[in-house]
Specification:
Blueprint lengths: L1 H25 L3 E2 L11 E5 L4 E6 L2 E9 L19 E11 L3 E6 L4 H12 L14 E3 L7 H4 L9 E3 L1 H10 L5 E5 L1
Protein name: L,D-transpeptidase
Organism: Niastella soli
Pathway: Cell wall biogenesis; peptidoglycan biosynthesis
């Protein structure tokens, strides 16, 4: 009888391990192998539902990188401190190294669109009148040697978009200040 339970336990552990491997395997970045470099002006689409950052150029899709966010609740940012990633159209304001998270591609959040949504939510009573909109949203890397947080969908930021440091290096090399970034769910 004990051996049946032992075998059942081993089967469960093996299946769980394969499921975890499949998740990690699925999140390997993809790139258009027909082109070595992007062509023309780039733009980025961050899809929160799929945990992906996609790069598009003048010829269409160029690359996809796995990403994670702040809060497990993937809805739009409401107020400062909610750890949600804002949705909308943004631009890269600056690019710089970062002591903790490798590099930062700072976004222009909050935008006029962000302020309009924020004001409307206050008017409708969805958020308190005393709430603040927040700021400091970026695309950045992870702690050194901590790529697993991206592979296993661990949302850990304060509302930023995080990707593996190696992927961020590739992205940083091809995007410019002013690059359009669309964040959607």
């Amino acid at each position: 009888m004990k051996s049946k339970w032992l075998i059942a336990g081993l089967v469960v552990v093996a299946v769980s391990g394969l499921a975890a491997f499949k998740t990690i395997e699925r999140r390997v970045f993809k790139k258009n192998l027909l082109r070595s470099k992007p062509v023309g002006e780039l733009y980025l689409i961050v899809d929160k539902s799929d945990y992906e950052l996609k790069v598009y150029d003048a010829e269409g899709w160029y690359a996809t990188y796995p990403v994670v966010f702040g809060n497990k609740d993937l809805s739009d940012k409401l107020i400062e401190g909610d750890r949600r990633t804002p949705e909308g159209t943004f631009k890269i304001l600056s690019k710089r190294p970062h002591q903790k998270w490798h590099k930062m591609l700072m976004l222009d959040y909050p935008t006029a669109e962000s302020y309009a949504k924020f004001k409307e939510r206050k008017t409708k009573g969805i958020i308190p009148q005393s709430a603040k909109i927040g700021g400091g949203i970026a695309i950045h890397g992870t702690w050194p040697h901590d790529d697993l947080v991206v592979d296993d969908f661990t949302n850990w930021t304060n509302g930023c978009v995080a990707l593996k440091n190696e992927d961020l290096d590739e992205l940083d090399a091809i995007v410019d200040i002013g690059t359009k970034v669309i964040i959607q769910r």
